Amino acid sequence: MKIAFVYPHSGFSEPVVKLSDAIAIVTFELARRLARDHEVIVYCRRDKGEPAESRHGNLVFRRFDQTFDFALFRLRLLETVGLLRPTHPFRFTSLYYRVFIERVARDIAREQVDVVHVHNVSSFIPVIRKHAPASALVLHSHDHALADFDPDVALARLRMADLILGCSAHLAGNLRERFPELEERIEPFVNGVDRRFLEVESDPKRSAEVVFVGRLSPEKGVHVLVEAFGRISAEHPDASLSLIGPNHVPNKHFVDPFGDDEVLAGIEPYYRKGSSSYLDDLLKAGEGLQVMMPGPIDNRDLPARLARAGIFVFASLWQEPFGIPAVEAMAAGLPVIATRAGALPEIVEDGVTGILVDRGDVDGLAGALRTLLDDPERRAAMGRAGRKRVEELFDWDVLAERLASHYEAIVAPGQTGRQRRTASADPVPCRRSA
């Protein structure tokens, strides 16, 4: 098969691919494995100084300049003055990356791609369908946009897709509930972890370092974690807390567009004050404590950093669509404390691979930290159980094989995409694969 991935938000820099964006990691890990047996093209952003194309065997990165798209982004101002409905923000309109996707779609048609795998941006589907009607289309959802925004617009786009993937059972379930007529096309497809993390030689029994990896942003519950750590630090003077990740507070519309999540309503002031203020608040809360903020690190350097830790915490307040950092920490042999938020209970088996607490529960989080810091043997046992769970459920090699099976189910047996039927506006539901 000839397979295309479409992801406009990353440039996949050369000569060494350095990735911290979760969806870029998913794209790269799947694409490079599928390229062992198939031709794979990744359509992505062209950054300054990067080549328009680079090839690694059967894997090609084809990059497009986005200058005109960035100019169109100024239309986001229409949201602030109320000219765009809350259920139809700019990123959900057909103008979002419109120049990029027109160029990509024409190239897909020229390449006669069999399967086109689009990450997140549903407005790309009609454009690709118009230019490449014989290609099978996959829309892979990594956030809540399809479940949050204009259902009529979303449904019209989804009808043009042959397969709709949600990055967790939580997300796929939300989509099935909202679009029951498309239930047979919607499948959960979890993210994985590179085997580099499974090879980490950690020893949580000997380490009292607590680590968080992710955006330093209020919906990630970082301030809740710092407060909880402060409550147990006197009992455990040897314990330290490392907050690894970029200081970036997004617009609250991205995490709670309609303000209907009571837990997130309590952190509204953080979004008004912005990233620098949130970081200042974290620094102030961590005064006098063993709290370190080394900033973001490349994913390739993360295994060595996790090897030094004893406990991983993911205290998200947001209903997480997935949670790659938690899986990576489990693969590295660490016990994971996480909140009952979105897909995290699918990842962390409460009492076996870690401990689950309620969102925003400072006392519960402090209690979970105390429990594991008091019991080195339990930390080690949970770490071993977590690593086993990752090997069974979140291995990229297994997931790539499963994805290839999904592709085969939507491409007519014995035919390439260019020989398939000309797609109608409402394709035949795909067969489920195991």
Overall tally of domains: 2
E-strand count: 14
How are the strands ordered across the major sheet?
3-4-2-1-5-6-7-8
Question: Helicity, in percent?
Answer: 25-40%
Q: pLDDT below 50 for ≥5 consecutive residues: which ranges? A: 415-434
Based on secondary structure, the structural category is: alpha/beta
| Annotated CATH topology of the largest domain | Rossmann fold
CATH level-two architecture of the largest domain: 3-Layer(aba) Sandwich
Biggest sheet statistics? 8 strands, mixed
Radius of gyration: 22 Å
CATH homologous superfamily of the largest domain?
Answer: Glycogen Phosphorylase B
Distance between the termini: 20 Å
Total count of helical runs of at least 4 residues: 19
CATH class of the largest domain: Alpha Beta
Strand content: 15-25%
Q: Based on CA inertia axes, which overall geometry fits?
A: globular
What is the residue-averaged pLDDT? Answer: 91
